[in-house]
Amino acid sequence: MSIFSPQPRGPIYQTEAGKTVFGVLAKFANPGALVHGAEAVRDAGYKRWDTHSPFPVHDMEESMGIKGWLLTPLMYIIGGGALTGFLVAGAMQYWITHVDYEMVVQGKPTDAWESFVPVSFELTVLFTAFSTLIGMLALNGLPRHHHPLFTSDAFLKASDDEFFVSIEASDPAFDPEKTRSLLADAGALSIELVEED
Amino acid sequence: MSAINPDKLTADRLAGLAPRAERERPKDPLGDGTLVEDPALDPPLVLGNPSFGDITNMVASYAEKPIGLWWLIVFLTGANLFGLLQVMLIYLITTGVGVWGLNNQVDWAWDITNFVFWIGIGHAGTLISAILCLFKQNWRTAVNRAAEAMTIFAVICAGIFPGVHVGRVWFAWFLFPIPNYNYIWPNFRSPLLWDVFAVSTYATVSALFWYMGMIPDLATFRDRAVKRIREGVANPFKLEPPLWFPAAPMPSLKLPFTADHVRAFIYGFLSLGWRFSGRHWYRYEKAYLILAGISTPLVLSVHSIVSFDFATSQVPGWHTTIFPPYFVAGAVFGGFAMVLFLLIPLRILMRDFSRLVTLRHLELMAKIILVTGTMVGFAYSMEFFIAWYGGNKFELDVFANNRVKPDIFFKDGAPYWWAYWSMIFCNVVTPQVFWFKKMRQNPAVIWVVALFVTIGMWFERFVIIVTSIHRAWLPGEWHMFFPTPVDILTFVGSCGLFLMLFMLFLKFIPVFAMAELKAVLPQASPHYGHSGGHGGGHGDDHGGDSHDAGQSTVIASADADEKELG
């Protein structure tokens, strides 16, 4: 979930043991089946849900209905990083060379911008790279120490060769019976209840 | 003329059709089936038609199972040479740069040669990961992780030399614009300072790029360890019995946790809680593409700026405008040679390595060696041409009398002629064997050429640096440079550091980009299995599928069948 667009929450469900339900985890056979499952969940109007696959499945963003808008904050962060790097480099070099420590080198004016180009470029790239990685992780809510899905033994195979859809119980559209049948109809091989711990 | 009923004709023709037999791949005596000449057939990127799970098992087995005695031998060799490097550096720092063969005239020699050599080797990794990523060259997935690792290790080796060559290394922090009590700042008009920024940015961005690509694979390692712990089959800490005596009783440590607990902790820490989410993948892929996009000008800028160290000076032989592109081409050339030099032996030494790095990968890289080697050869000749055509007497003199004319034949000829001609032979002549298909498809030949190129690229930097300054201007300033044992052993030690780091990489880090490899398998396409049809409700534009290897094979053979039919 994007930290910038919190979704409304539905009621809280509890298991018979009194544990809070995180949601359901449905396994799908292959990337094609996962795409179908994702489309079914998207079309049913769910918001707090996700797909899990060992590699990025082609065009999954369309099947999940997240194409475009999910990226906008990331692009602002990266653009901001690039601009910051450029301005920091320019200001630093101008201030050092022209204001604080004027030193005539090769008889050139101390505020000649041409020699500032390489360092400005490098710092722009450096800041862009950091903002790309950190922005991507932050918007993804990472690093994160634990997640309820990790309690599922089956879910460990998502990093290997299996494909999952998870729907959170806090989704306003979540209904224990309807959500289960939706996933079953969409071709889920198995459906598992995941508890918060 | 009786009118032919077209429907009946079609019906007759259709009635006689039978499905065509599977097209035979041409047999290749050397090959592993990937060296296919038919452009309609896309060779497999991974041999043996593996499943997703096979890829995970293959790559994870390097880290989870014994790797072999050779690893220990190479690692210990590297580690010992790294120890030698430390001894040499301590000796240098405690004594002074006089322990090197430098003199008043030749004040840059082995140190900067080694620096440029290592930083050049570092260029292939980012080129493979960034530029080939932008060009959608799917074969990069098998070599990018190792090449990026190599980049970072080479930059680490490179960073040592400018750090220690300043003489009083405890002042090396003056290289960075850090406020200090002397109220002085570095000179931003100096290419040497640009170099500091270029190399440190390059090292940092390469490491970020490498790490970002590795997050999902580290998460895979984490999940495998966690899975074994939960299933109660976690691997305990124990030393493996030696290969030559498998019955040897090896001690087993009694600890409250197992090796898999350590794996789960470390890989879990490094994978940042990655859970393979579709939303995460979406941002991740775009972020990766942006990193590739900014790394592309970065990789071109780094060696350009390194070349400014020379090109902006007034020294004949250095002061040329061709240096930036010439250095970049040379860096790519030397970097790919090092990639091939390291990967070809691993195809023999490591399980399943040759299934992932196929002969096609080697051939494609051999072609890059040929192209960049020829570009470097062009640069050598163009440099020489301009030295003559530019009419600068001193420049021509450097080329003719300091480099080309052997002093064994010409009076006042070049004492370093052997360095120049070694460079020409290794860098320009040997790669030309790759014009022949048999040569560039033979791993042994490629390995030998890669070795020559690596040597040749070292000589190139030596020629540029030493021959230009050892006899400049007045004959009274003429001095020869001879390396001391400290010079030589420092370089050998840096090779050891590189080797040691690379061995650690092979053992502890996912050697292949598993997630990327899985994504280029034929069955990774959502349309795999239902030939070209768009099922369900996702009938939008899916025209971009043709870069998917297996998918395009299916489409290509379907197209070919249609042609035969019509």
Show the helix and strand layout.
The complex is a heterodimer of chains A (197) and B (566).
Chain A: E1 21-28, H1 31-43, E2 49-52, H2 60-64, H3 72-100, H4 117-139, E3 163-168, H5 176-185, E4 190-195
Helix pairs in contact in A: 3-4
Chain B: H1 6-15, H2 52-64, H3 69-95, H4 110-121, H5 123-134, H6 144-165, H7 191-231, H8 259-270, H9 278-311, H10 323-349, H11 353-356, H12 359-389, H13 393-404, H14 417-429, H15 437-440, H16 443-469, H17 485-508, H18 514-519, H19 549-565
Helix pairs in contact in B: 3-17, 4-6, 4-10, 4-16, 5-6, 5-9, 5-10, 6-7, 6-10, 6-17, 7-8, 7-9, 9-10, 10-12, 10-16, 14-16
Overview in brief:
The complex is a heterodimer of chains A (197) and B (566). Chain A is of the alpha+beta class.
What characteristics describe this protein?
heterodimer; A: 197 residues; alpha+beta; 4 strands; B: 566 residues; 19 helices; disordered C terminus
Fold and architecture overview:
The complex is a heterodimer of chains A (197) and B (566). Chain A is of the alpha+beta class. Chain A has five helices and four strands. In chain A, strands 2-3-1-4 form a four-stranded antiparallel beta sheet. In chain A, α3 runs antiparallel to α4. Chain A is elongated, with a radius of gyration of 24 Å. The two termini of chain A are 19 Å apart. In chain A, 44% of the residues are buried. Chain B is mostly helical and 566 residues long. Helix content of chain B is 61%, strand content 0%. In chain B, α5 packs across α9 and α7 runs antiparallel to α9. Chains A and B meet through α1, β2, α2, α3 and α4 of A and α2, α7, α9 and α18 of B.
- SS-derived structural category of chain B: mainly alpha
Gap between N and C termini of chain A, in Å? 19 Å
String of helices and strands of chain A:
EHEHHHEHE
Structural class designation of chain A = alpha+beta
Rg for CA atoms of chain B: 28 Å
Widest sheet of chain A: strand order? 2-3-1-4
Number of distinct beta strands of chain B: 0
Helix content of chain B: 55-70%
Shape of chain A: elongated
Distance between the termini of chain B: 23 Å
From the alpha carbons, calculate the radius of gyration of chain A and give it in angstroms. 24 Å
- Major protein interface: A-B, 77 and 81 residues
Question: How is the quaternary structure best described?
Answer: heterodimer
The major sheet of chain A is characterized as:
4 strands, antiparallel
The number of E-state strands of chain A comes to 4
- What is the tally of helical segments of chain A? 5
Mean pLDDT of chain B: 84
Low-confidence stretches of chain A: none
